[in-house]
Write a structure and sequence with these properties.
The chain is α/β, with parallel strands linked by helices. It has 15 helices and eleven strands.
């Protein structure tokens, strides 16, 4: 286990170095997005246009050695444009038969760009793929390549032409990664290095097969009982009717068991990312916001008073119960 972890650490260091040559600053965004992939899940990147969300996803596909496809979500996009469809063929004898033509979802890394600019019906086309890793078209099951990850970018809902994602689909994302504006020095480097004659290009650091090996290693990492109890305490305290007075007053509905599963996997991945062989309660506190914020909703009264979902989560994460 220790030898495997040391080898994985070296590979993770190579991944971080390769990404840093293209993406400047935004260390926390890169870390959380990588944690989602290393945990075997999907990530939702939320931020205004122009913050290199798409470039980060493209870079990760190259660095991780994954086959990737991009879907630009637009209001007129249809589910068949994502999943594929059956077309009718006719052979030389005149016999007709249906043939399945796969859509762009059949890849190892799917970039769903501006996912909330398509209708909820089209957004929901990814539900089965993200949870069960296969799609059903015309009653036939079609398995997706392994590994399979969806990295979606989303514009703030306050912008024109956006639709809120269905709650069921939000729950399929392991993490929601908020992408802020870059720091001054990082933005200075962006100005200098992306407006010249040559721009940095990502290079592969590992293969898809090696990625699956690291994902399997993360699932084998031991989790102390104290960390398991902290995850249970945090997730359950975020649900109304489970003994937390502030949650009862401000939260309309809270996270389900899938949030605890996400926390367990991401806590393991974060420990390995930091060079540790087991997660700690600090990992749980650090991951509370990206794991929970898209799995909870505030009451109308709480929103009217200016309460934010991040404030509620921060209060829960700081609780002595963890």
């Amino acid at each position: 286990m220790i030898a495997a972890a040391e080898a994985a650490l070296a590979d993770i260091a190579a991944i971080r170095q390769a990404v840093s040559e293209v993406i400047f600053g935004q260390e926390e965004v890169v870390e959380r997005t990588l944690l989602a992939v290393l945990s075997g899940g999907h990530a939702l990147l939320v931020g205004v246009p122009g913050l290199a969300k798409t470039k980060l996803v493209t870079t990760l596909g190259t660095v991780l050695g994954l086959d990737s496809n991009r879907i630009q979500f637009t209001p007129d996009l249809m589910p068949s444009d994502i999943l594929g469809s059956e077309v009718m063929d006719q052979d030389d004898t005149g016999r007709r038969s249906f043939r399945f033509v796969s859509g762009p979802v059949f890849t190892q890394l799917l970039m769903a760009d501006e996912i909330n600019r398509a209708s909820p019906r089209t957004q929901s086309a990814l539900l089965q793929a993200m949870q069960e890793y296969h799609v059903t078209v015309a009653g036939q099951r079609h398995d997706l390549p392994q590994p399979f990850h969806v990295l979606a970018t989303q514009n703030p809902l306050e912008q024109e032409g956006t639709y809120p994602l269905p709650e069921a689909q939000l729950d399929r994302f392991l993490l929601q990664v908020d992408v802020p504006y870059p720091e001054r020095e990082a933005e200075r480097r962006i100005l200098l290095e992306t407006t010249g004659g040559a721009e940095a290009v990502a290079s592969p650091a590992i293969t898809a097969r090696r990625l699956t090996e690291i994902q399997a290693l993360i699932r084998r990492m031991p989790v102390p009982d104290s960390v398991v109890n902290a995850i249970l305490a945090l997730v359950r305290s975020a649900r109304p009717g489970h003994g937390n007075a502030r949650t009862d007053a401000t939260v309309a509905w809270g996270p389900g068991p899938r949030a605890g599963q996400a926390m367990m996997l991401c806590a393991r991945a974060r420990a390995l990312y930091d060079g540790r062989l087991a997660p700690s309660i600090d990992d749980v506190r650090a991951l509370a916001e990206p794991v929970l914020q898209h799995r909870m909703a505030l009451t109308f009264a709480a929103r009217a008073e200016g309460t934010g979902i991040r404030d509620v989560i921060a209060s829960l994460a700081a609780s002595e119960a963890l």
